[in-house]
Amino acid sequence: MLHAxxxxxxxxxxxxxxxxxxxxxxxxxSSARRRxxxxxxxxxxDAGEVAASWGAAAAAVKEVDVxxxxxxxxxxxxxxxxxxxxDAYAVVTHKIDGDSQLACYGVFDGHGGRxxxxxxxxxxxxxxxxxxxxxxxxxxxxxxxxxxxxLATDNELLSQPQGVxxxxxxxxxxxxxxxxxxxxxxxxxxxxSRDGAATALTADxxxxxxxxxxxxxxxGGYVSRSGSGVWRVQGSLAVSRSFGDAGLKQWVxxxxxxxxxxxxxxxxxxVVASDGFWDKVSNQEAIDAVSRCRATACRELVELxxxxxxxxxxxxxxxxxxxxxx
Length: 326
Hints:
single chain, alpha+beta, 8-stranded antiparallel β-sheet, 6 helices, 19 strands, 33% strand
């Protein structure tokens, strides 16, 4: 029997749940100044299909720090000092007999404004669930369904009648039947802890990678290196794959890389974070911090990145994988 489905989605820190959860805690800075818009998240009906109703309500206050503890995951987020918060995260779970058999976790990093990241953080999880729930359970079919969901989300974003400026990077982690599927475009990163050792499950999509630079050049684009040493597409964008970025779409694609990891003994947790974090903290440092104390690690890691000079938005999510190990 299919029981109630719990959704949580947060764009730049605010969150809405469809049903109460006494295990979830949230704290925010008393000097709140960077709170984003609230999202109303759809529910999954008893047939397992995602409902189509989405809504948004504006909130006038913005907050600096957000810390969330949910069922099997933790999130901490802090806005950078330079602009409005452009990070986001989302969690979607599908419960059977009270057990989360299917779950999707995502971290998103926008650029050029909030419009793209708001749209993608709302739609991508919905599209992934719709695609996966109707796909065959073979590994290849699930990976292809996730890929199709990414491309569909990008097409929806680009087709908005009012137009959407800017773009967004994303990394999502889907757990289904004891398998972990990680997909990404851009430079949000996912790192697995296996017996305490860090294993990167994504490779940043930047023009510093030879294969990405060659792909862009084959399509008639160019890559140049700025005075700060950052490689940019058409002298503009530092990531080589993203949602949106309509003016660069010929070269900056939303084709994700999808990897599958069977969850076996030793697979402990996953750290997913935006590049404002990974620019200052190594993969193993992140794993070590979470291993010491999962409950406080996200906030401590956000503070570590900031203390090392990160001026970007920083979002860190930790997902407990041991409960999914078979």
